[in-house]
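Good morning,

Both structures are done.
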Amino acid sequence: MSSSQAFFAAYDALLARWPTGVTEIDVPTPYGTTRVHAYGPAEGTPLLLLHGGGSTGAVWFANAPALGTHHRVLAVDILGDAGHSIPDGRPLRTTTDLMGWLDALLDGLAVPRAHLVGHSYGAWIALTYALHAAPRVDRLVLLDPTQCFAGFRPGFLLRSLPVLLRPTEARARAYVDRETAGTDTDPGWKRLYALAVSGFAHRKLVVGRRPDPTGLSVPLLVLLAGRSGAHDTARVAARARKAVPDARIEILAELTHFAMPTATPAQTNRRITDFLTGNQEKQAALGTV
């Protein structure tokens, strides 16, 4: 089996764990065709999910059942990353291009306004987009966001370097095993990640400047991994509170950066769902939180 065949077999295995009723949609944009996994009531508020680098939209299998109860889940294969999206249009090179791609994607899905949830690199895209097009974003959830409020730990970059320079499945798997040690991160996703890193070395993720979140006008929830190797969690939390005083910021003490979103999904799903449905505000008004 070729590396490409192994990757798509692992991808399909994760997708098979999504709930019954998921629909695959290919959305044309000026930058290429984007694969979207859609689940949940058609009349539900759209909820766009943006994965971390190398994870693909299939990674949300443990979140879709809960998030799709009241929302129309739209899990994207980010264009330029591994997955079923095909960059066969205009080159996707800059942050402006990336924002144009998301504008076109939402237009193609006939979604004028949506909630956004992003993990890691996907969180950077989600925050950048919420600043770019606030009227199109209802609420914003960032899962251990990178390059949003603080930079990477130097040690994290050093550990990542060998995987980036000489990507092999074994090296990528050893790396992600180390970064998820002590968590119940899904082994099927870890295999998919290792195959994405090793089999899609030509991946071209658009990387831009750290956004200035002080102008954010969208309700924000930040869920941080207490054991994140990617950055200093306390520093990220402090900077997020300073930049967006009204944001809700919580630390999931037992999780690591790569453990999201597959490890202990029930608590993550509950926090996201409560925030998106306004349950936290309702409970606070009643004095129950």
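Second structure follows.
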Amino acid sequence: MPVFDLSHTPLRELNSALHNIDAGSNDTLFEVVNPRGHHAVAVGIDAPVTVEVKGSVGYYCAGMNDGGTVTIHGSAGPGVAENMMSGTVVIEGDASQYAGATGRGGLLVIRGNAASRCGISMKGIDIVVRGSIGHMSAFMGQSGHLVVCGDAGEALGDSLYEAKLFVRGTVKSLGADCIEKQMKPKHLAKLAELLKKAGITDVQPEEFKRYGSARKLYNFNIDNADVY
């Protein structure tokens, strides 16, 4: 297993190794030690590799991930898993602003809390937060799911399109055109699936409320939702 110690190895070497994995290579498990808050750790992964980061990271960790599994054994700065395409990113601690922004696919799990604008402009990503989230989360969310086991800050789902939001705790306020909606059996089933994938077993789907768009503000054809 390749180990990269960022206290003396340039970050460029780590990201270069992740971008140049030969087909059929057995070196698909990487360990990163002493990340020391470095920015852009493990960005642009486009192969089914596993990266274990032993510590906290700065801006844009695991950005543009497409197929990798990245676990951060610490907290993450702004923009973690930004524009993720597929794969899984897990943060054992807290996440700063705009976690999972513009994500198009994959699963982002935050074991702690997330700051403001979590899931902003999400486009298909699934985000599960064990704790609470800050204000303006899921702003202009187009598709995907945001699951919050704690509370949500002000203006949740402002200008929301078709992303689905599930909150177990209290919501300080809803944003423009975001409303509470009925929790149907299909939503409970999807929520149960997401909680299971995130490894959260101590809460039940029935404890959540669902929020979505009132569809009063946008010019959007729901029949074409999958192509937006």
